[in-house]
Amino acid sequence: MPEEVHKAAVKELGRLKRMAQHMPDYSMTRNYLDLIVELPWSITVKETCNIRKAREDLDADHYGLQKVKRRVLEYLAVRQLRGDLKGPILCFVGPPGVGKTSIAKSIATTLGRPYCRMSLGGVSDQHDIRGHRRTYIGAMPGRVIQALRNVKVKNPVMLLDEIDKLGTGIHGDPGAALLEVLDPEQNSTFTDTYLNLPFDLSQVLFVATANSLSTIATPLLDRMEVIHVPGYTQEEKVMIGQLHLLPKQLQEHGLSSDILDMSKESIATISKECYICV
After folding, report:
1. Which of 54, 119, 194, 220 has the fewest CB atoms within 10 Å of its CB?
2. How confident is the model at residue 273 (pLDDT cuts 50, 70, 90)?
3. Which residues contact 123 (CB under 8 A, 6 or more apart)?
4. What's the pTM?
5. Angle, vertex CA 89, rays to CA 88 and CA 92, nearest 5
6. Are 209 and 73 in contact (CB under 8 A)?
7. How far apart are the C-alpha atoms of 241 and 245, rounded to whole Å?
8. Is the pLDDT of residue 242 over 90?
9. Range list of β-strands (E), the chain
10. Which residue(s) pair with 172 in the sheet?
C-alpha cells in the first residue's frame, strides 16, 4: 500500500473510532476503509507468454478467423519483445456471436493473467466510470475500481465490453472519463472520485469490443487499434457447431457422442432456424 494511501486510511480509521455505530457516517466510513483494504495496490501476477501455445489456444477455441488470430499473435509477440504495456488497445469489432469476447479471454489465458469484464452498454453517466462523491447517499466507486477490487490484482486483462454503446446524459460524458482511464500518460495516477486517491492503472491490459464504429467518439477511437471480426458463413457455422459447440454441450451435460450424435444436416437446419452464437 502506498504511503499516501496508508496515511489516508489511518486518518479515516481514527475518525471511525470516534464515531458511534448508529451515526450515518459510520457505515459510509467503514465501507470506504473496506475498499481501501481490498484494492490490489501492489498485488500482481507474473505474466507468462508462449506464442506457440497462444496459437494453439486460439486455434482450439476459435474456428477460422485467421487474420484476426495472426494480428493478436503479432500484438503479443511485440509486447513480449518490448517488455512494456504502452501499445495500442485492441478493439474487436463485429456482429454479435462471432467470438470477440472469447478472444479477449484467450489473451488473458495466454498471458496467465486474471480476466475481468466491464460492461459499458447503456452507460451514460461519467460517474459510472469515475465514481461518485462520498457525500452522496448510496455513493460508490466507479466500475473500473470495482472491477479491480473483485479481480484482486492490479494487472488483469480488462474487457471493455460494448464500448460503442456508451451514451451521453445530463451527468457528463462517460467517454471522456474513459479516455483518462485509457491514456498511458494519465492512467498511472487515475483518481476515482469516490476513492479520492490515485490508483495505478498502467499495468492493466485493456481490450475492447464493439458491434460498430459509427457511435464511438473519435478521441476514444484514436486510442485503439481496430480489428474487424467478420461474421461466419453457413458452412463455417456448421463446422463450429460440429467441432466446438456440440462437444462442449455434451461435456457440460455429462453425455457422450455414443448417446447423442448430430449430423451436419441437422446442425445446418438448426443454424438456419436460429442464430448459432459462438
Report:
1. 119
2. low
3. 129, 143, 165, 166, 167, 174
4. 0.83
5. 125
6. no
7. 5
8. no
9. 89-93, 115-119, 157-161, 190-191, 198-199, 205-210, 224-228
10. 169
